[in-house]
Design goal:
The chain is α/β, with parallel strands linked by helices and 362 residues long. It has 13 helices and 18 strands. Strands 3, 5, 6, 9, 10, 17 and 18 form a 7-stranded mixed beta sheet that branches. Helix 4 packs across helix 5 and helix 4 crosses helix 12. Bound molecules: zinc ion.
Length: 362
């Protein structure tokens, strides 16, 4: 088969499209013919060099495809069935998995990060990681769901306890997670402020964001003009650096800031430690006394580490699939690049040109 593989860490030029031996399913595995694989910022971080990634490595975590073959112990899926492969990879057969404590799985890995991912034609995965795709979703839409929607759901509902009618501000609103957050907040009748470049504002409005804010200007001042002294109930911020400090000040009483990335530290196509360090130095330090006095909460999530909790993630993914089936959510696919143009796709999301999800397809 063909795969997008890296033999060294670096810029988009290290992505090789090359021949790789076909995987074979173990008795408890499902062999999936890949139809679409979403491209996440996580893939960019892996390409630049994440600890724990063994080379050579096939990237890609969110996979949608068709069952090509099932292992001899697998009775629940049939050849040709449309399936989604969850990014978290628990084995399903160790004593922990069999006891139902999958978060302690002996063979736990994260697809596209700790083990080879889905930027290829065929992938063999444990049965426990395979979910049927509802009829309402095509392959591209299904592949856009896992990382971004689970991240958004976990932050809004899990960490921040989002309630009906609250005010939510999303930085990086046109990203995959941003769009997912807007759609989820919309189902709860929230007032939504979304920060993105002006050219993406019509798109944000179409997704349900009532107050697009221009990322070129001072976002906090523009947000203040909308919410006044009441402040914002909840901020999702993947920009980081100075932006977290501004966001904290913008929070109203009992407001919550959720940090889920530090894109301000990612300047070039390779790791620039000096730039990253400067951004980190600009992050204000809070102590619990200050948080207590202000009645504010700061929390964070790391997509990669979140997926080491399949006990949390699997039910969330199942609820999200259900919401899709009912038409409450609409995954937005921006663009699908063929595997042969993987480098261009990486550059595209690095340059933040995307509106919604970017996919890689065979
Ligand atoms: Zn296991």
């Amino acid at each position: 088969m063909k795969a997008v593989r890296i033999h060294e860490f670096g810029g988009p030029e290290v992505l090789m499209y090359e021949d790789v031996t076909d995987p074979r399913p173990r008795p408890d595995q499902v062999l999936v013919r890949v139809k679409a694989c979403s491209l996440n910022h996580l893939d960019v971080w892996v390409r630049k060099g994440l600890p724990g990634v063994k080379l050579p490595h096939i990237l890609g975590s969110d996979v949608a495809g068709e069952v090509a073959e099932v292992g001899e112990y697998v009775g629940t899926f049939k050849t040709g069935q449309r399936v989604l492969v969850a990014p978290m990879h628990f084995c399903g057969h160790c004593e922990k998995c069999l006891a139902g404590v999958q978060n302690q799985c002996r063979e736990f890995t994260v697809l596209g990060n700790a083990v080879d991912g889905g930027n290829c034609d065929l992938i063999a995965v444990p049965l426990a990681n395979v979910i049927a795709i509802p009829d309402a979703l095509d392959f591209n839409q299904a592949a856009s769901v896992p990382l971004v929607f689970v991240t958004a759901w976990h932050m809004l509902v899990g960490l921040a306890g989002l309630r009906m009618g609250q005010t939510v501000l999303v930085l990086g609103a046109s990203s995959g997670v941003g769009i997912a957050a807007i759609q989820i907040a919309k189902t709860r009748g929230c007032q939504i402020l979304g920060v993105a470049s002006a050219s993406k504002h019509d798109f944000l409005r179409a997704q349900g964001c009532q107050h697009p804010i221009d990322s070129a200007g001072d976002y906090a001042a523009q947000a203040r003009a909308v919410v006044g002294d009441k402040g914002v109930d909840l901020i999702l911020d993947a920009v980081g650096g100075r932006s977290w400090t501004q966001g904290y000040d913008l929070l109203g009483p009992c407001g919550r800031l959720v940090a889920f990335g530090l894109s301000s530290a990612s300047a070039g196509n390779t790791r620039n430690l000096l730039h990253a360090l400067r951004q980190l130095m600009s992050v204000k330090k809070w102590n619990p006394m200050k948080l207590m006095d202000d009645n504010k909460t700061i929390s964070g999530t790391n997509v990669g580490h979140l997926f080491s909790r399949p006990d949390l993630v699997a039910p969330q993914l199942a609820s999200l699939m259900d919401m899709y089936g009912k038409g409450d959510l609409h995954p937005h696919v921006d663009r699908a690049f063929p595997f042969t143009e993987a480098a261009a796709a990486h550059q595209y999301i690095h340059d933040r040109k995307s509106r919604g999800k970017v996919l890689l397809v065979p």
